[in-house]
Specification:
- The longest helix is centred in the C-terminal third of the chain and has 16 residues, at 215-230.
- The chain is built from ten helices and nine strands.
- By secondary structure, the chain is α/β, with parallel strands linked by helices.
- The strands form two sheets. A six-stranded parallel sheet has the order 3-2-1-9-8-7.
- It has helices at residues 29-33, 44-47, 52-60, 74-77, 86-96, 119-129, 149-160, 170-173, 215-230, 247-260, and strands spanning 3-7, 39-40, 67-68, 106-109, 135-138, 163-164, 166-168, 200-206, 234-240.
- The chain is globular, with a radius of gyration of 18 Å.
- Helix 6 runs parallel beside helix 7 (149-160).
- Strand 8 (200-206), helix 9 (215-230) and strand 9 (234-240) form a beta-alpha-beta unit.
Length: 270
Amino acid sequence: MNFHIGCAIWAYKGWVGDLFPVKSRSKDFLNLYSRRFTTVEGNTTFYSVPDSETISRWAEKTPPGFKFCLKLPKTLTHNHLLKPLLPGALKFLEQMQGLGDRLGPLFAQLPPSYSPANFDDLAGFLEGWADTSPLAVEVRHLDWFKEPHSSRLNALLKDLNVGRVLLDTRPIYNAPDDPQIGSERRKPNVPLQPIVTTPFSLIRFISHPDLEMNQVYLEEWVRIVDCWLKQGTTIYFFVHCPTEERSPQTARHFQHLLQKQNVSVPPLLW
């Protein structure tokens, strides 16, 4: 299965009665979610590292083929430099091995303050990670999207077999309103540069709560996904939304768009 689709989280009470059956209990959310989507971004590890018992329980509650794409903890990625914290990152990877074949690519979300001036530090960290496990990087400083930094970054990632996370925030920034008003975690307004640096791609689609506002961008992603799948790329497509209740609806709508255009993706069990 080379196409996986899901959301940023699996435990959201607002989905009860819609994505989850009425009266669903929180302890059953992961099991229910994994029977509806095929991957989850796993934001939870950005804030705290689960113990081995929790990790084993995650694996037990999900079916074969389901993938966790977990963030490296914030304590590793948001302390100015990465390379000195490589041992901690490798320890985190070791802890996540309890997921077995449910473990998908991990990714490092870097803060807006981490600029191309830190290129050597990033290179040292990624070289130390090497091919221990699939890894992707999300950059947010705007200079990473400008030349010569963009090409230099992409070359580094390709050379070390590291993915580049694609963050698409166009739906929320090109809309007439700002659906992030009041949100504590605003997404950055960064350019989208669709590029594949590894045999897999992680796409984070930040959707507008109004489904129609996403349509033109989702149709563009249908064409890109179709092209990349035909090239043999494994794709993980995650739908976020400032109004989290709407994320599953948008994800399912994208799945339907792919199927309508005869893109070769596995059907959802949902």
